[in-house]
Amino acid sequence: MLKLAVVAHETDNVATTVKDLKKGENVLMEIHGKGEVRVELQQDIPFGHKFAIEEIKNGDGILKYGEPIGHATEDIVAGAYVHVHNVVSDRGRGDIKEEK
Amino acid sequence: MKKLYGYRRPDGQVGVRNHLLVIPASVCASHVASKIADAVNGAVAIPNQQGCCELGPDFDVTHRTLVGFGKNPNVGAVLVIGLGCEGISTSDVAKEIAESGKRVEFLVIQENEGTINTESKGVRIAREMASDLGRMQKVEIDISEITLALECGGSDTTSGLAANPSLGYVSDKLVDAGGSVILSETTEFIGAEHLLAERAVTPEVADDIIRIVKRIEDKAKSIGVDLRDGQPTPGNIQGGLTTIEEKSLGCIYKGGSRPIQGVKEYGEIVDGKGLYIMDTPGQDIESITGMLAGGATVVIFSTGRGTPTGSPIAPVIKVIGNGDNYLRMKDNIDINAGAIMDGTETVAEVGERLYDEMLEVINGKYTKAESLNHKEFGIYKLSSTF
Predict the structure, then answer these.
(1) B294, containing H or E segment
(2) Rounded CA gap, A61 and B41, in Å?
(3) pLDDT tens digits for range B154-168
(4) Residue ranges of the domains in chain B?
(5) For the domain B19-135, what is the CATH code?
(6) Does B229 have pLDDT greater than 80?
(7) Which of A1, A12, A16 best tests the B interface by mutation, with the highest count of B CBs <10 A?
(8) Are A91 and B341 inside 8 Å of each other by CB?
(9) Which of A32, A37, B57, B156 is the most exposed, having the fewest neighbouring CB atoms within 10 Å of its CB?
(10) Does residue A56 lie in a domain region?
(11) How many domains does the structure of chain A reveal?
């Protein structure tokens, strides 16, 4: 069976699709060190884009490759699209005052 | 083991190509340099846009890059063309390149009655040099004498999941064989620098890695904008990359897993074996230019969206992680790593194919960028000209 999505690391809370996927699809992922995870997609997710594989709270870190890639700007349910509309970077932010 | 052949230079270094390079000392000499190279088979000019009215670090970077290009082992002989009044000294550039033992000549436009006479003199010199280079024989070389530059660009999420891991496999294999590898693009270490620092051979090297990343991040912040205005690029975002951290974590996979021996400034010569980091921007052309000035002889360029970039003096091999985009950009891509995404091929399998392709290219096979005459060149700038 061809894979539909990839989870890069066992601690990740997002997966990356390997083909265009539709809302309502049930995606089964084999996560190294964690076993199988099944998620029902809440939206269409284009090839190469990400969806949450578990519930992510507003302000929580988005984890990919086992590392934070930014944080959520709203509550994100499992199966929802994760991209620039609900994630912001924590680095190179000259637009916000740094907390000392 | 496949036998490899290359050009042994007077200083003992090994080139995989045998270019006659025409170097304009400044932008004011670039047109004449290009006209000379166009007239002579085997000659190539670099379109230098700098070389005058630059201050401090920018002057040093330009000088180092021009000299480094001339000294690059893929270059067999050099003709330097200057206007005569620019900041970069034509004769100094020629003299420093000549330390490598290769033949170097120079001409100054203001001392040769202008464009027409300089061109005709230059063409005569270049024709004779090119003829000599043509007689040079390849000799057997060892893989450990290769310096590989790693680059990624036109990224999407397949870059970090497929193309870069396969390139990382090649990087590790070349390091294990005794070769040199350069990882660059400091902007694309942001968010992943702690993982690179853990691989440094000494605490000093680890500090250097953190320092260059902080320097570039502080520079972006000092403009008072969100780095996302430039990184990830609009195309990266369309390809699924959300933040610079995500891009960086994928990017560093191309550097494999071996220890990091040192950190070099932009265009500084990489004189050791193993994996090195060079401080370059994420912009592909400037990054590749810096690594070639540092002595790289082969470039492998990973992508997800596909890019056409080549170089005036080195073969650039393209590997793509996105199988659909491979079909769209086939004219420009040498190796398709797309099957890693759906699990029908492993990283090691694609890595082996990519490594074999590199050996073929070392032995003379033209990459797609080479056969299509892609010769991109650009020098990194820190501030404006004055």
Answers:
(1) none
(2) 57
(3) 999 999 999 999 999
(4) 19-135, 143-371
(5) 3.40.50.2300
(6) no
(7) A16
(8) no
(9) A32
(10) yes
(11) 1
What totals of helices (H) and strands (E) does chain B contain, helices first?
14, 14
Span B291-310, pLDDT tens digits: 999 999 999 999 999 999 99
Residues of B in contact with A82 (CB under 8 A): 242
Which pair of tokens denotes residue B313? 């003096």
For residue A97, what pLDDT band results from cuts at 50, 70 and 90?
Answer: low
Distance from CA of B210 to the nearest CA of A (A): 14
DSSP string covering B301-349: EEESS------SSS-EEEEES-HHHHHHTTTT-SEE-GGGTTTSS-HHH
A89: nearest CA partner in chain B: B243
Residue B168 near residue B152 (C-beta atoms within 8 A): no
Tell me whether residue A97 is in a domain: no
Q: Is the pLDDT score of A1 beyond 70?
A: no
The answer to whether the CB of B363 falls within 8 A of the CB of B5 is yes
What gap in Å lies between CA B152 and CA B288, rounded to an integer? 10
Average the pLDDT over each of A91-95, B8-12, B186-190, B369-373 and give the range with the smallest value.
A91-95
Across the interface, do A92 and B157 touch by the CB < 8 Å criterion? Answer: no
**Nearest chain A residue (CA) to B239:** A48
Across the interface, whether the CB atoms of B161 and A16 are under 8 A apart is answered yes
Angle, alpha carbons B113-B119-B120 (nearest 5°): 95
Token readout for B280 is 């370059």
**Are the Cβ atoms of A49 and B240 closer than 8 angstroms?**
yes
Residue A68 falls within a domain, yes or no?
yes
Which range marks the domain in which residue A14 is found?
A: 5-88
Q: Which residues are registered as beta bridge partners of B14?
A: B8
Residue B267, chain A, CB below 8 Å: the answer is no
Closest CA to B163 of B182, B360, B171: B171
Give the nearest chain B residue to A16 (CA atoms): B157
pLDDT of B346-371, one tens digit each?
999 999 999 999 999 999 999 999 99
Residue A52 domain-assigned?
Answer: yes
Strands of B147-152's sheet in order across: B260-264, B274-278, B180-183, B147-152, B298-303, B316-320, B335-336
A36 CB-near residues (< 8 Å, 6+ apart): A28, A29, A30
Q: Does A28 contact B at CB distance below 8 Å?
A: no
Lookup result for tokens 């027409």? B116
ipTM above 0.85, yes or no: yes
